[in-house]
């Protein structure tokens, strides 16, 4: 191990990217796609974090079915992988990775980040991360809040309280509360108040302090993982982990811990951040024509407005439509209203019930 180095990264890389369907599929989810740059979101995340956390200290949490794909794409070793028997949200994923790290270094500092976000002006990001690591030393759970630039309804929000820490142009506040994705009117209020930040879903903390919160707020899971810890690298480790996941609660770390703990700090991000959460994010990265259309591939429009078109083979022709999403993949054609697309998860839930269509998920 690098002498004196105590910083680790936990990368949550097992999401299925349902809000990017049909471009994102169960076996080839969003983080593997090259929609925005010449490299996948997952590879960009590895490059970004490797500038401050060496690969030896990176842990990628993935479901077992994505292990081979992730390992080969990123050229990882077994020790870089924390393999889940199934996906069960972020609370157990982060807790499991934390127990593995604790075995190596009990007082490690850790940054937790999703594998499928985009971050620009990375030097500012690194400054914010280093600032957050200093705050975490004081036994705070630290998150990153992004100043809103428009009344977004697709992000959760963080309401800030009193100023806790300041360093040059960087500031961190006590978190007053976390707020679920608001409707448009509420989002406008949040924007105008200047007391709310977008919740980026990235965290920094001491492993020891985080696990104390797991013990406090998720005692059953803590005891299960503590029991598992003694059996890591032993014959029945895999079976025990499967049993733990079967009975574990399907809950995010936000709900399970962040909304309940007291010592929560939020660093106000000075970097550009985008979770590229759904297909609608394409509008932020591709040029629109004079009628507001995004056209990726061979597309011909006439009297067509504010629509998104995507094809890699057959051309798409449109006439007299607006506010649509039309995607041509090798095995399917998908058409949706843009406003209705926010309900895509409901639509996919219906598809899951249809045996003939499950292969398209």
UniProtKB/TrEMBL annotation:
InterPro entries linked to this entry: GMPP_N (IPR049577), Mannose-6P_isomerase_type2 (IPR051161), NTP_transferase_dom (IPR005835), Nucleotide-diphossugar_trans (IPR029044)
Keywords attached to this entry: GTP-binding, Nucleotide-binding, Nucleotidyltransferase, Transferase
EC number from the UniProt entry: 2.7.7.13
Keyword presence, Transferase: yes
Residues of the Nucleotidyl transferase domain: 9-290
Catalysed reaction equations from the record: alpha-D-mannose 1-phosphate + GTP + H(+) = GDP-alpha-D-mannose + diphosphate
Top-level taxon in the UniProt lineage: Bacteria
MF term (GO), any: mannose-1-phosphate guanylyltransferase (GTP) activity
SUPFAM superfamilies recorded: Guanosine diphospho-D-mannose pyrophosphorylase/mannose-6-phosphate isomerase linker domain (SSF159283), Nucleotide-diphospho-sugar transferases (SSF53448)
GO biological process: GDP-mannose biosynthetic process
Family: Belongs to the mannose-6-phosphate isomerase type 2 family.
Name this polypeptide is given: mannose-1-phosphate guanylyltransferase
Organism for this UniProt entry: candidate division WOR-3 bacterium
